């Protein structure tokens, strides 16, 4: 009686949410199922096969729910084979990443992931605002955000006891209009959930991913509106001022060797920063094109 009561109160209301979280599994996964299973039909194997990215399913004929009893040797053999293949996968994966040098941003995000994933969470427990975003209640979300006494967007989007934020939930369930509203309100985008993902990582469609991209940056470093732009004046060819004491700012005069040395150092420093900026923008291009990273 207590087990059934616990299932009805704490598990069944959130089964769909928990099932959808299975698509976050990134490691190779083996699904074993008995074709004659009367408790969970074989359709479940196909359901989980589509849900879990790197999964494969093996269905045993003449086998019920208790596979370890009906097909002990077959179950053991498939487990052993999968473990061997997983070890090979781990070896190749580590070899591929052995020489990969992590950037400061990657190191920071990895530290955040380790910290978040080390905590304990309570499935199904979150704020009312979280569930409004989770369930796509856009009018209610807008009403809370527009309220005079509304908490800050950082508070509303705080990591919940279930290990996710309101933005994570809205992105995961593809509530595009809610995500637009949250991003317009400068909702924090780099919070890591209990799966180690930022909200962008939960996007399943191109349309959702584009919401996080920086707008067109083709005019980022110049202004097409020339109203307030500086004008460059060129001396007229009829300019006849012959005053030899006139000094032009575009001509640099050095009075000593120390000034020359100081100027050279400054030029080298500028060149160094330009090289650093070029490397930085190329290295982190994917991150800089998102709204939350502005330079």
Structural summary, described in words:
There is one protein chain. Helix 7 runs parallel beside helix 10. Helix 3 links the parallel strand 1 and strand 2. The chain is flat, with a radius of gyration of 30 Å. The chain has a two-stranded parallel sheet. The protein is mainly alpha-helical and 295 residues long. The protein has three domains: 78 residues, 3-Layer(aba) Sandwich (Rossmann fold), CATH 3.40.50; 83 residues, Alpha Horseshoe (Serine Threonine Protein Phosphatase 5, Tetratricopeptide repeat), CATH 1.25.40; 49 residues. The chain is built from 14 helices and two strands, in the order H-H-E-H-E-H-H-H-H-H-H-H-H-H-H-H. The longest helix has 27 residues.
List the defining traits of the structure above.
295 residues; mainly alpha; Rossmann fold; Serine Threonine Protein Phosphatase 5, Tetratricopeptide repeat; 3 domains; 2 strands; flat
């Amino acid at each position: 009686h207590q087990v059934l009561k616990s299932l009805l109160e704490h598990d069944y209301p959130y089964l769909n949410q928990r099932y959808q979280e299975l698509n976050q599994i990134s490691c190779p996964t083996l699904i074993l199922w008995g074709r004659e299973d009367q408790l969970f039909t074989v359709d479940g194997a196909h359901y989980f096969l589509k849900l879990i990215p790197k999964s494969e399913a093996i269905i045993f004929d003449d086998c019920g729910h208790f596979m370890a009893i009906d097909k002990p040797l077959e179950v053991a053999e498939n487990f052993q084979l999968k473990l061997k293949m997983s070890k090979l996968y781990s070896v190749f994966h580590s070899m591929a990443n052995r020489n990969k040098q992590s950037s400061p941003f990657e190191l920071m995000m990895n530290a955040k992931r380790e910290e978040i994933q080390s905590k304990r969470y309570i499935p199904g427990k979150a704020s009312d605002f979280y569930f409004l975003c989770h369930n796509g209640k856009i009018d209610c979300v807008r009403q809370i955000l527009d309220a005079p006494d509304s908490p800050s967007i950082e508070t509303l989007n705080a990591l919940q006891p279930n290990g996710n934020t309101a933005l994570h939930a809205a992105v995961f369930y593809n509530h595009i209009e809610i995500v637009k509203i949250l991003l317009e309100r400068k909702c924090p985008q780099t919070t890591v959930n209990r799966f180690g993902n930022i909200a962008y990582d939960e996007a399943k469609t191109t349309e959702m991913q584009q919401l996080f991209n920086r707008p067109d940056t083709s005019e980022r470093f110049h202004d097409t509106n020339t109203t307030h732009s500086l004008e460059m004046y060129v001396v007229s060819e009829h300019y006849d001022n012959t005053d030899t004491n006139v000094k032009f700012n575009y001509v640099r005069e050095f009075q000593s060797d120390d000034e020359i040395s100081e100027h050279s150092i400054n030029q080298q420093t500028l060149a160094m920063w330009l090289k650093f900026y070029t490397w930085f923008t190329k290295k982190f291009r994917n991150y800089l094109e998102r709204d939350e990273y502005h330079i």
